[in-house]
C-alpha cells in the first residue's frame, strides 16, 4: 500500500495554552469542522471528545495530552478534491503546570504549535511557560486570541500582551469585527475580506462584499504594518514592496510562511471557538503557515555502535527511526506506546529495535488515535504519529529503529519531582493491586516516581504538585480499584556541597582466601545549580585498570542517594577520580565500588554540605481590595515579591516562595479573597535553606 498523503500535506501540530484559555474547545471545533465528530462536545457540559478521562470531565481541565487525526482542505480550494486535502495530526495538551510533562513531551515530537490565549486575560503565567518550552524545541507557532465574545475581551490588549511579554515578532493577520456580545466575524488583512460565520454551529462561512466603514482605516494601517514586518524579513519581498509594485496575495502568504517557519514572525489570528467564530480560518492558517515534516531540520542522532553522529532525512526511503513520546494504559488493548516516525516506514507485525534499551520488540498492531477511540492501520510512514500495541520494554523517550541501522535520537528531558506523599493500601487485598497500579502509572508519567523508605518500609509517591498526586491517587482508585491511605505532602529537599575537597579511601579486607582491595583518590567540587552530577576520569598510566572505573562511578552515585546532613539526595556535584592503586589478585569491581562510596561520603562531610529546598514561582491574580492581605500573607510564607502588575481590572503579584510554605495555599487564598483570587505555581529552582530552618529539618530527620 502506498503513502496516501505526501509529506508536504501533513501537519503535526499541538494546541498549547494557559489553563482555561479554551484549547480543548478549539480542538472540539476543529474535529467538528473537519468531519471527525458529528456533534460538538462542550467542556462545560463534560462532553468534550478530547477530555475523555473521567477526572478531566469532572474538573473541566485537560490532564493527558490527547492525540487525534483530522483532514482539511483550505477553504479557497474545492472540497472533496483529494490533491488539496491535508492530514493534520493534533495533540491537545494540558494547561495546568502540574502536567507540564505532557506539554514537554508533545512539543519534542511536534512540528508546529497553535498557542491559544484568553481574549480577556491575554498572556497568563502558564502561557509564558508553554511559550518557553516551544522556544526550547524551536517549534514554529501561530497564535489564536480566543474568547472575544466574553465581557471585557480586547483583541488589542491581548495582542499587546503577546508582543510585550512573549515576542515582539507577533503580528496580526486578522482583526475582529466587534467584540463581546457584538462579535460578528473577522477581517483577513491579507485579502481584505470580512468573513461572517452563520448556521447553528457557524459552519457556513460567508464572505461580505465590503468592510464595515468604521474599520476601513484600521484595516489599511494594520495591513501596511503587516507588509512592512514581512518586508523586514524578506529581501526579495522588500524590493517589490519598496519599489511601489502591487504585491500579490500569493507572494504575501509565501513570504509570511517562510518567516513563520524560521520563527522571525508569529502570525496572530482571532475569534471565539465557543461561539463558532474563526475556527475554519485557523485551520486554513495551520495548512498555510505551519511546517510539514519536510520543513523542519532532519533528525540527528548517535550511532550506538561507534557513537558517531548520524542524520535521518524525513523520507520513506531512509532506514526506519521513531521516538516513543508517551505510554498510556488502554482498558481494551493494554499498554499503548505513542510514537512519531521520523524516517522510513513501519508495518504492523514487524520486529523493531529499541536502541535505548538494546532490545528487540515485536509490534503487533498500529493504531491511529482519535482521542480514546482507535483506527487500525497496517503501515505508518515518515512524518506519521500513531500508537503501538505489543511493545513490552519501551518507555517515554526511547528510540525505535531498524535492526540493521541503529540510531539513538535525543531523549526528552523531564523536571525532577518536588513533592512527595506516603501511601499505604487500606487492606491486604489492595497491597498487590497497588504495586501494579503504581508501576503502570509511573511507566506512563516520567515525572511521577515511586520509592520506598528503607527505615519505615513505606511507599513514597513523588510528583510535580499537589494536584498531580491527587489525580494519580484518584486514577488508582478508579482505574485499578485500589483503596489507599495518603499521608501529608512532603517537600523533596536536596543536599549539595559548597566547598572543594580531595578525599582518599581504601577498602581492604583479608579474611582467608581471596581478599578485597580498592584504593581511590577523588576530588569533590560544587557545580552550578541545576548542572547535575558529573564524573571525570583523570587516571593516567593505568594506576587503576579501566575496567574498575565504572564501578567507582557507580559507588559514588549510590552514595549520593543518601546525603550526609539529613539523608536527602545530593545534587550538583562534580567528582574527579585522579589517583589510586590496585592489587593484582585482590582487586575487584565490588571493592572499588565500596571505596568510591566511602570516599564520597567522607569527602562530602568536609565539603561544607548544605540543604536545598524547592522554590516555586507564584503568580496571584486578585481584585485590588485584597492586595494588601495577599502580599502580607505571601511575606509570612517567606516569599520574595518580585513584581506587582495589572491584568484587565485585576491586580497581579509575582513572587518566589519555598514550596514548604505553600501547601493548601489555593484554599487559603480563596477564603482570604471571598473566592475571587486565583494563583498559578510552578517549580523555579532549588535554593539553600536558611540556617535556622535547616537545623530544625536535620534534627527532625535524625530523631
β-strand percent reads 25-35%
User: What topology, given as strand order, has the largest sheet?
Assistant: 18-17-23-14-15-22-19-20
CATH class of the largest domain: Alpha Beta
Number of H/I helices: 16
Radius of gyration: 28 Å
Instruction: Please name the fourth-level CATH homologous superfamily of the largest domain.
Output: P-loop containing nucleotide triphosphate hydrolases
Query: What is the approximate shape?
Result: globular
What separation lies between the terminal Cα atoms?
68 Å
Helix content: 25-40%
- State the CATH topology of the largest domain: Rossmann fold
Largest sheet: 8 strands, antiparallel
Mean pLDDT: 84
In the predicted model, the low-confidence regions spanning at least 5 consecutive residues are: 41-65
Q: How many E-type strands?
A: 38
Quickly count the domains: 5
Task: Please name the CATH architecture of the largest domain.
Answer: 3-Layer(aba) Sandwich
